Amino acid sequence: MRPEASWVDLQSLALSLALGLLVGLERHRAGKELGMRTFAFTALAGTLAASTEPPYRLPFMLAVLAFTALVVLINSWQNLRAHESVEITTSVALLLTALNGILVGRGQIFTPVAATILMLLLLSWKEELVGWTALISRDEVHAAIYLGVISFVILPVLPDEPVDPWGLFDLRRVWLMVVLISAIGFANYVLLRVYGARGVTYTGFLGGLVNSTATVAEMALKVGANPPLERFAFRGVMLAKAAMFIRNGLVLGLFAPVALPYGLLPVGLMLVLALVLAARARVPAGEEAPEVRLTSPFSVRAALEFGLVFLVLNVIATLGQRYLGTAGFYGVSFLGGLVSSASSAATAANLAAQGRIAPSQAAYGTVLASLASAVILVPIVQRAARGTALGRQLLITIVGMVVAGGLGLLLNPLFLAATGLAP
């Protein structure tokens, strides 16, 4: 036998032993009957079986798997006789350890090591996973499933080209926007569930990433019912708008990166203003912030509504640009922002990515949509928080944001020339 071959075999045995011992150690610390030696022997047996030469290799590997299954059955039978629960998780872990040993014997390293690490994570996080599942509602589970359906079932089968002779209805692009916006919203909804109870800073910002209008409306309703919460609500509203600016910029950057530099200054000025006002709004320590309850951001209805709004805006913006020029596109962007700034930003980015509008138009359309989304909040807050100063504060702030955004648009050519960010 060559020394090189002996060294390779020794490495395989050492790796297999280490993987088996790690899993066995975790099971032993969890108080399970199958412990370190059982898992180590199982991994070694798999490696030895996979290291044999044909025609004995396959029968030996099958024999190891069969013997492991027999050990699992005997252990389960003994637990049942002792009126104990069947350790299904430990049994599956033992079978996976045998498979990992076989993979090591076949010369693989990454797959068995990665599988063992993932297995250890799942085994050691039992309490955390159980506690996490207790916090998830049935609707949220359905939302995650629906998100997977639209991402991996519906999207791949949609046609790549527009389905109409005018090139207005590109179903794949529409659905891709639905998937990405829904995924961003769902991820931030999860973060809101985790961190939302820690105060108005988390609630306002994360809620704004999910749905800024819903977050602000909910806070305004809380203020209307309990005016002392006004000091919390203004800070939360500013953070929600800051999150909206970031989200719309992210949408623009994802779908039309070349357009992003044109929107940096105007959106950046509005974002800085919102953050400064949020920082200046003093929130007394120890007082309870208003809780914002948002429904799960994804459902079939929500996806279809967003897709429909995006499709309609895309068609109208295309026609507006085609027949009314730049002014028509900007008008559609502003009006669309009153309904959904995310849809308007996605529409602008989509048209820029297709070459139907200039990158600067897409950026300025996103700025107008973001401003419209901020403006529409004034009547919403004044109606919900009637009798408080929140509506007046927001009106003054929105005027400041409009001025900041307009100033950014005026100074943008100088900014781009000085920085060289855009041609």
UniProtKB/TrEMBL annotation:
Instruction: Could you list this entry's UniProt keywords, alphabetically sorted.
Output: Cell membrane, Membrane, Transmembrane, Transmembrane helix
- Reply yes or no: does the keyword Transmembrane apply: yes
Q: Where are the transmembrane segments?
A: 56-74, 86-103, 109-125, 141-159, 174-192, 250-278, 298-317, 329-349, 361-382, 394-418
Limits of the MgtC/SapB/SrpB/YhiD N-terminal domain: 13-129
What is the protein's membrane topology class?
A: Multi-pass membrane protein
User: Chief localization class?
Assistant: membrane
Q: Keyword Glycoprotein on this protein? A: no
* Compartmental location: Cell membrane
Q: Which residues form the DUF4010 domain?
A: 179-376
Tell me the domain of life. Bacteria
Q: Name one GO cellular component term.
A: plasma membrane
InterPro entries found in the cross-reference section: DUF4010, MgtC/SapB/SrpB/YhiD_fam, MgtC_SapB_SrpB_YhiD_N
Q: Which family does it belong to?
A: Belongs to the MgtC/SapB family.
What is the recorded name of this protein?
Answer: Membrane protein
Provenance organism: Thermaerobacter subterraneus DSM 13965
Which lineage is the organism of this entry classified under, starting from the top rank?
Answer: Bacteria, Bacillati, Bacillota, Clostridia, Eubacteriales
